[in-house]
Design brief:
The protein is α/β, with parallel strands linked by helices. The chain folds into two domains: about 210 residues, 3-Layer(aba) Sandwich (Rossmann fold), CATH 3.40.50.2000; about 160 residues, Rossmann fold. About 45% of the residues lie in helices and about 15% in strands. The chain has a seven-stranded parallel sheet with strand order 3-2-1-4-5-6-7, with helices on both faces. Strands 10-9-8-11-12-13 form a six-stranded parallel sheet, sandwiched between helices. Helix 7 packs across helix 13. It starts with a strand and ends with a helix. Bound molecules: uridine-diphosphate-N-acetylglucosamine. Uridine-diphosphate-N-acetylglucosamine binds next to helix 1, helix 5 and helix 11.
């Protein structure tokens, strides 16, 4: 069986590391029935600390192809990826194309494959923010619509798909427009396998070693610190929102330092807008090992990232989300996560409430830590 995997942006490296490891472990146990994985890196994220570091420390195989398509507008980036991925698909003739999450690389991969009748497997299917202004929401809706395998991380994701008429169990859907892949209905499945990022957190937390830079930060801030990330277009591309978030974090940093690994997009916009950052401790983007080290030692998290909201919960930290909505609604429903948008007053109030909340993190929201193994087994069983 040949799987062609598309990756391109930072969170996809973490997810692909889990499934690539599950493929290797399947191959060790099944010498007569090997899976060949062809890795294609679109090049969407290209800086060494946004890409190479993840491959090195998470031992992700070197990509067989790197399309070198980084930067550019959404249309230009997605169009170039479509063309490059189609060429690779025609050459490699895989049995299935595997995509992760909601980036432009995800959509380009799925679209290139479905047009030439290569079945698509989507890991992290069914998530919705219900905000069509987000490029990620458009990418995931379209990818789900053309996927044969929809690997959902939660029951909420399964229910989202069902409400759009995407269900592999017709008895559970009352929707007369129920979606079906007539060309390949045997391979059409919606499955809750759990979250591959939970697998990653469980596996790597035992082997992660921080860099010297992060080890020094832990020493310097032994009295406690917060961890923050900001990179969503809706925050970075709006001066008032970015200014409001950074002003609030600057104020919070006076009493408790905020460490913020800065995404290249955010760095550029801070400079373009001329925003002054005084107290926040800005650092360059960091690898996964450094990130989980900071997550496990911090007092709480401020973020607009999807993945970091869950990672806060995996490491039992309260999270304040700098967005109006989230795809990970179960975190909000259980009180682990508060949605505050970019409103400075709400951000400051939420920080005040951080230490008062008594949270019970023992509830399992994202599966049993073997999402990667389940994904591989399902794909193999369909061959
Ligand atoms: C992308 C994904 C988002 C994901 C995020 C994780 C889309 C639409 N968005 O957003 O879903 O949460 O990745 O980080 O696919 N840049 C660099 N160096 C790099 C990478 C990017 O300088 O290594 C620059 C790009 O040239 C661009 C900007 O940063 O100007 C943003 O990159 P882009 O890939 O468009 O989107 P992200 O904000 O990273």
């Amino acid at each position: 069986m040949k799987i062609l995997t598309i990756i391109g942006a930072r969170p996809q490296f973490v997810k692909a590391a889990v499934v690539s490891r599950a493929i290797s472990s399947y191959n060790e146990k099944n010498p007569a029935n090997q899976i060949v994985e062809v890795l294609v890196h679109t090049g969407q994220h290209y800086d060494s600390n946004m890409s190479d570091v993840f491959f090195q420390e998470m031992r992700i195989p070197v990509p067989n192809y790197n399309l070198g398509i980084g930067g550019g507008s959404h249309g230009s980036m997605t169009g170039k990826m479509l063309e490059g991925i189609e060429d690779v698909l025609i050459k490699e003739k895989p049995d299935v194309l595997l995509v992760y999450g909601d980036t432009n690389s995800t959509l380009a991969g799925a679209l290139a494959a479905v047009k030439i009748h290569v079945p698509v497997a989507h890991v992290e299917a069914g998530l919705r923010s219900f905000n069509m202004k987000m490029p990620e929401e458009i990418n995931r809706i379209l990818t789900d619509r053309i996927s044969n395998w929809l690997f959902c991380p939660t029951e909420v994701a399964v229910a989202n798909l069902r409400s759009e008429g995407i269900s592999s169990d017709s008895s559970q859907s009352n929707n007369s427009s129920q979606f079906n892949h007539s060309n390949n209905s045997n391979n059409f499945r919606v499955l809750n396998v759990g979250d591959v990022m939970y697998d990653a957190a469980l596996y790597y937390k035992n082997i992660a070693k921080p860099s010297e830079m992060v080890a020094n930060l832990l020493n310097d801030y032994a009295q406690g610190f917060y961890l923050a990330t900001v990179h969503r277009a809706e925050n970075t591309d709006d001066r008032a929102r970015l200014g409001g978030i950074l002003d609030s974090l600057d104020k919070i940093s006076i009493n408790k330092p905020v460490i913020l690994p800065i995404h290249p997009r955010t760095k550029k916009m801070i400079s373009d807008y001329g925003i002054k950052v005084r107290n926040i401790h800005l650092i360059d983007p960091i690898g996964y090992f450094d990130m989980i080290t900071l997550l496990s030692s911090c007092h709480g998290v401020f973020t607009d990232s999807g993945g970091v909201q869950k990672e806060a919960y995996f490491f039992h930290k309260p999270c304040i989300t700098l967005r109006e909505e989230t795809e990970w609604v179960e975190l909000v429903n259980h009180g682990f996560n508060k949605l505050v948008g970019a409103n400075p007053e709400l951000i400051l109030n939420a920080e005040q409430a951080f230490s008062k909340d008594k949270l019970d993190f023992s509830i399992a929201l994202y599966g049993d830590g073997d999402a990667g193994g389940k994904i591989v087994n399902h794909l193999v069983s369909a061959q």
